[in-house]
Amino acid sequence: MNNKAEFVSENAESQVLTDGFHLVIDALKLNGINTIYGLPGIPITDFTRMAQGEGMRVISFRHEQNAGNAAAIAGFMTGKPGICLTVSAPGFLNGLTALANATTNCFPMILISGSSEREIVDLQQGDYEEMDQLAIAKPLCKAAFRVLHAEDIGVGIARAIRSAVSGRPGGVYLDLPAKLFAQTMDAVAGRNSLIKVVDPAPHQIPGAEAVQRAIDLLKGAKKPLILLGKGAAYAQADDLLRTLVEKSGIPYLPMSMAKGILPDTHEQSASAARSFVLPEADVVLLIGARLNWLLSHGKGKTWGGKSSKDWGGQKFIQIDISPTEMDSNVRIDAPLVGDVGSCVSALLAGMGNNWPQPPAEWLNAVAERKNKNVAKMAETLAKDPSPMNFHSALNVVRDIVKANPDAMLVNEGANALDFTRSIVDMYKPRKRLDVGTWGVMGIGMGFAVAAAVESGQPVIAVEGDSAFGFSGMEVETICRYNLPVCVVILNNNGVYRGTDKNLSGGSDVAPTVFVKDSRYEKLMEAFGGVGAYATTPAELRKAMEEAIKSRKPTLINAIIDETAGTESGRITSLNPAAALKK
Ligand code: ADP
User: Fold this and answer.
1) Distance from the alpha carbon of residue 335 to the mean position of ligand 1, in angstroms
2) Order of strands across the sheet with 35-38?
């Protein structure tokens, strides 16, 4: 193995050569990509060593899915594609789940996998880890490329970067066969073949007519509402969004990962009146949010419709970078296609200086409902039941996040997700990272690692005990890199809760039940981190405060009432059995 980017060939007369390994590293670095999340093995082990040798940060995981999730969320946080590196076939497949999830969530990510020899794979002659990875990846991501020759590495990386971040961001697969890494070429020609991508995510400016149409609709609204999605958070147009909300005076609702674009304590936040404002609003301005299942497809009772298929009568203005998102569920009356920053700037310019505030009747109705619900929640949070429940435990997390607004919050689970989202206020943009569009389990420790690596801030990961299990082994990774991650497991002994019974009366526990009183904190201790066991809010608070202060990897096993929690959390209606019960 040669650690130098360029070397003198022993065969040719003092010709300076480079190789595939170094061209990939140089191409990434040239584009400002300095971190790789991955897992070494054939054929990319040497590549990981060399990348580290060349000054890149290589974060090595215990399972590729977690590395992939880390890369995906790094992409969301930074706007640059996160890189996940895997071995061939099984490693590639493990990374693919994260790539598909990144694409679904519009996170820019590049999965780079080593692959076996093309000639043998194509003739299906049974190579080591033989698999036609490019063909398998294609339907699951935004774009997929393979590079066969060292002189094409520059183009391959450039195309991957552009595909990941331009337009609607997403996941890209880059297939690098084992043979490519060892190919050599003239070093000067190699350097010249690399591309520094100019303007990888160009602004997309909305048309003047489209802007006017949106403004006219908004101006005539009696009960307007702004809905901020994670596309708005991703766009990093925080000041513009705040100006739009405040200048328009319109109440707004943040989707889960849009919490904190404006502080959740902002007086125009209508989060606490969600079930009131959605059916009542007459004009809804969607900003980087899709009308998918998370918004009941823009229809049905949530929106004031009479049945689940019924449209509520709202008019929609939608800001989105993807033109084909429009009308995907209901009619979009004023589509505003472009990037969030450009669209919001255009709206602000068109609104002028004397924008009429929404009718007081609407604002008062929203405020009244909100105040009532906030008071009700305060009452619930003030209770101190024994054992703890979700509310009393999360009341502590809420205080800790308030005191540490720069901390990152990772969140997954069913009830652990739903309750945290509604109880824990966020104060700054892109701090809340969660299960996203698929509501997927298993993002926890991958997201936590990347959140710490990319932000340098303390990370609090609020995990259901079931959700934690999907990526729990990465506590070793957290300890290995000494990351300031505090994992809080809300432990109720099972999936949803720990009290289900075996319907047959047999000796196996029910499929949703785990070992009672599992000592998850010992997992962290096993690798040199801090473990804590908390049965009261006071113990939880003390352990969290210590974790934030010390920045030591910490796992707090927060024991909550095993009867707490409902089946599937807030998406009970999606269980087929729920239909039978109707
Ligand atoms: P949420 O789940 O928070 O409602 P979604 O993931 O459903 O958010 O929606 C995000 C939307 O934002 C996607 O439709 C995507 O095309 C869009 N988007 C992503 N980045 C930008 C951007 N820079 N400008 C405009 N729209 C964007």
Assistant:
1) 14
2) 57-60, 35-38, 82-86, 109-115, 171-177, 143-146
Q: pLDDT for 289-307, tens place per residue?
A: 999 999 999 999 999 999 8
pLDDT for the residue numbered 18 = 98
Tokens linked to 514: 């785990």
Q: Separation of 168 CA from ligand 1 center, angstroms? A: 7
- b/e per residue, 325-355, with b = 16+ CB within 10 A? bbeebbebbbbbbbbbbbbbbbbeebbeeeb
pLDDT of 579: 65
- Report pLDDT for 272: 97
Rounded CA separation 285/220 (Å): 13
Counting ligand 1 atoms within 8 A of each CB, the residue from 320, 344, 345 with the most, and so the one to mutate, is 320
Q: How far apart are CA 377 and CA 432, in angstroms?
A: 21
SS (HEC) of 201-256: CCCCCCCHHHHHHHHHHHHCCCCEEEEECHHHHHCCCHHHHHHHHHHHCCCEEECH
Whose alpha carbon is nearest atom 14 of ligand 1?
290
Q: What is the mean pLDDT of residues 100-120?
A: 97
pLDDT of residue 309: 84
Query: 320 in ligand 1 pocket by Cβ < 6 Å?
Result: yes
Confidence (pTM): 0.97
Share of the chain above pLDDT 70, in %: 97
Q: Tokens 């594609």 appear where? A: 81
Query: Residue 261 C-alpha to ligand 1 middle, in angstroms?
Result: 14
pLDDT digits (tens, 9 = 90+) for 186-239: 999 999 999 999 999 999 999 999 999 999 999 999 999 999 999 999 999 999
Ligand 1 atom with least separation from CA of 288: 12
Domains of the chain: 3-193 (3.40.50.970), 208-368 (3.40.50.1220), 383-581 (3.40.50.970)
Does the CB atom of residue 230 touch ligand 1 within 6 A?
A: yes
> How many other β-carbons are positioned within 10 Å of the β-carbon of residue 501?
9
CA distance 60 to 16: 32
Contact (CB, 8 A) for 517 and 507 = no
DSSP assignment of 163-187: HHHSSS--EEEEEEEHHHHH-EEEH
Place of tokens 């071995």: 87
**What is residue 6's DSSP assignment?**
S
Lookup: tokens for 407: 């901390």
- Stretch 514-540: mean pLDDT: 97
- Residue 193 is given by DSSP the state H
pLDDT digits (tens, 9 = 90+) for 372-428: 999 999 999 999 999 999 999 999 999 999 999 999 999 999 999 999 999 999 999
Distance 233 CA to ligand 1 centre (A): 8
Strand partners, 494: 513
| Degrees to nearest 5, angle at CA 246 with 106 and 431 | 40
pLDDT at 3: 53
**Closest C-alpha residue for ligand 1 atom 10:** 231
